[in-house]
Amino acid sequence: MVLILTFTSVSIVKAAEEDVVVFAAASTSEAVSALGSAFEKRTGFTVIASFAGSGTLARQIKEGAPADIFISANLPWVEFLDKSEFLEQGSLVRIASNNLILVAPKDAMLPDPFLFEKIPSLLGSGRLAIGNPAHVPAGAYAKASLQTLNLWDKVKESLVMLPNVRAVLALVERGEAPFAIIYETDMRRAKNIQLAAVFPRDSHPPISYAMAKVKGNDGHSTDLFYKFVRSEEGREILRQHGFLAFEN
């Protein structure tokens, strides 16, 4: 079984030297848990996973959190750690991509066809839920798309910015927001929501999930997990969870 940790302190110590501690973006939780389970069956090594916003995890690693592997929902946070020399040199790789979508509560009446320019009027006095662009990649992509579509200034007063995509999803699932911007893969685990529209791929920077090994923690089990994620079996697990897996 994959152990899942949620913490903000950097004082936690690894349970065993051969455990693989993976810090991964919240939007990858099901996929990384599946990767960890398959890896444990193959190797016998335990995978300990901690999920949160990519920015939050990057800052924890910089502060000394005991991570072996970092999987981010975008390149900049991994590059930030790489340039600051917190990662093993040459270990940064892109592993997958995703689509950005707009969702609404399942019982909402949506126009057909759905036009992005109608979002401000459809919101009314309601809120548009997104991840905080300052440290949540999905939020940064959402902001970029809204700016490209000339909607940012029209909806910014209606935004509610949350710490990760899970919180964003929960808000619209409970009907507390008429719309939310999430990844397409997030719909696979969602309840009581429907797809409103898929944002054009050219409206935001390419969505790239990146992985790297944390400097000083490049042990045998860590190296095996890193290679496993990039293997055909690992890529197939990513595809099964809705990601567009990159070939090596």
UniProtKB/TrEMBL annotation:
GO molecular function: metal ion binding; molybdate ion binding; tungstate binding
Metal-binding in keyword set: yes
InterPro entries with a match to the protein in the record: ModA (IPR005950), ModA/WtpA (IPR050682)
Subunit structure: The complex is composed of two ATP-binding proteins (ModC), two transmembrane proteins (ModB) and a solute-binding protein (ModA).
Organism phylogeny: Bacteria, Pseudomonadati, Pseudomonadota, Alphaproteobacteria, Sneathiellales
Native organism: Sneathiella litorea
CC terms in the record's Gene Ontology section: outer membrane-bounded periplasmic space
Family stated for the protein in its record: Belongs to the bacterial solute-binding protein ModA family.
Stored Pfam families: SBP_bac_11
Protein's name in the database: Molybdate ABC transporter substrate-binding protein
Chain residues that bind molybdate: S27, S54, A138, V165, Y183
Alphabetical UniProt keywords: Metal-binding, Molybdenum, Signal
PANTHER family, alphabetized: MOLYBDATE-BINDING PERIPLASMIC PROTEIN, MOLYBDATE-BINDING PROTEIN MODA
Single GO biological process annotation from the record: molybdate ion transport
